[in-house]
Amino acid sequence: MRIKKAILTGGGRATRLRPITLTINKHLIPLANKPMIFHAIEKAVEAGIEEIFINTNPGETQLQKSIGNGERWGISIKYFEQTGGPQGIAHVVKCAEEFIGHDPFMFYLSDNIILGSIQPFFEHFEKNNLDCLLAFAKVPDPERFGVPVFDAQGELVEILEKPSKAPNNFAQTGIYLYGPDVFFKAFEHAQKSQRGEYEISDVHTYLLKNGFRVGWREVTGYWKDTGKPEDLLFTNKLLMDELGTANFTRRGTSNNQTTVKGKVDVGDGATLTNVQLEGPVIIGENCHLENCVIGPYVTIGSNTSVKDSTITDSLIFGNCTLEGVKLKQSIIGEQARLIKKENGFDRVLLSDYTVVE
Predict the structure, then answer these.
(1) φ, ψ for residue 105 (rounded to 5)?
(2) Which of 209, 216, 203 is nearest to 173 (CA)?
(3) Nearest 5°: CA angle at 135, between 64 and 78?
(4) Segment holding 80, helix H or strand E
(5) What is the helix (H) or strand (E) element at residue 54, kind and residue range?
(6) CA 165 to CA 326: how far, in whole Å?
(7) pTM for the structure as a whole
(8) Per the domain annotation, does 238 fall within a domain?
(9) DSSP 194
């Protein structure tokens, strides 16, 4: 029972990541200078997925323009809106029923980052002829997630959604595999929770209590739900570490006062003058850097200008202007201007939800 279809999430408001997500879909935030959802798509393709269906916010256009129809990955990608407004992630799956039909499928939360392949999950699902396979990971704060409950024999018997006191430190991650019709049969019995949402944990509990073959595997490598700014920065570091040296090439131009240490990628059309680079660093196309110290763990989006600055462990989006600044563990959104004056005063124009430390 090979799985060839997948549903990926592309909706939501990501309020914990404001102000960045006021102007960009969370799933397009660049990690290792690549939109977050691209990492999910690549994992799915590697596992054998041929058709992907992505849910979007009403009126969404950013995702479609950035991702396209899947041609770049050799697959088909289509989009659908979650009808009736946000009603929980289980409802996202229900809205895709017409695309899935009677086929087995994967549901993948695209703001979850996992290192390594998800192929072993597919192999375990098929080998054991399961109706559903769940992926769990050990976390320090399981109360933020769906938490599995095991009986005295160690058998999985229930999933609790965001319990006030978790029975263990396992969390239900955003990777779910389902056999034909299984999810939709369970959803018929689902009721909205006190939060007004259809909880996917309730779907899985129904399957567990009604004789369906539900298995689970632990994510032993790195897994992260990128819900907070610090999660983005940490995940960006791990993704950059995971990239092989073949992913780092220097295609721009630099003068003889520019020094490079470690893995550094420089995009076409970029110019570097008197710059110290300590990798891993990724610099986008047509950037201009002058009199700077950059890295480690810095990504800079295309068409950004950086002068007289020191930046480390930061995400800099495209089309920015930075002059005379020292940044660490920072996220600078698209088209931002950050210029340090020499007159002793700072002049700022800050939008809602901005954080300055």
Answers:
(1) -160, 165
(2) 216
(3) 20
(4) strand 76-81
(5) strand 51-56
(6) 42
(7) 0.85
(8) no
(9) T
For the chain, the distance separating the N- and C-terminal CA atoms, rounded to the nearest angstrom, is 53
Give which of 145, 148, 143 is closest to 158, Cα–Cα: 148
Distance CA 329, CA 29 (A): 16
Residues 175, 103, single domain; the answer is yes
Is there a contact between 130 and 214 (Cβ–Cβ < 8 Å)? yes
Calculate the CA 252 to chain-centre distance: 28
Closest Cα partner for 75 from 40, 103, 45, 36?
A: 45
Is the domain of 18 the same as that of 156?
yes
Angle at 67 between CA 9 and CA 172, to 5 degrees: 25
Q: Which domain holds residue 91?
A: 5-228
The answer to whether 61 and 92 have CB atoms below 8 angstroms apart is no
Quick one: pLDDT at residue 238?
87
* Inside any domain, residue 236: no
Chain centre to alpha carbon of residue 1: 28
> Are 141 and 211 in a shared domain?
yes
Condensed to tens digits (0 to 9), the pLDDT of residues 316-343 reads 988 999 998 888 988 888 888 888 877 6
C-alpha 260: how far from chain center: 29
Please calculate the CA angle 330-334-335 and round it to the nearest 5 degrees.
Answer: 110
Three-state DSSP at 89 gives helix
Residue 270 lies in a domain: yes
Element (H, E) at 65: helix 62-67
Q: How many domains does the chain have?
A: 2
Q: pLDDT tens digits for 127-182?
A: 999 999 999 888 888 888 888 888 888 888 888 888 888 888 888 888 999 999 99
DSSP 250: B
pLDDT surpasses 70 at 349: no
Q: Same structural domain for residues 143 and 47? A: yes
Q: Are residues 57 and 161 in the same domain?
A: yes
CA dist 203 and 197 (Å) reads 12
The residue whose two tokens read 């005063």 is 345
Give the residue among 244, 257, 234 at the shortest CA–CA distance from 315.
Answer: 234
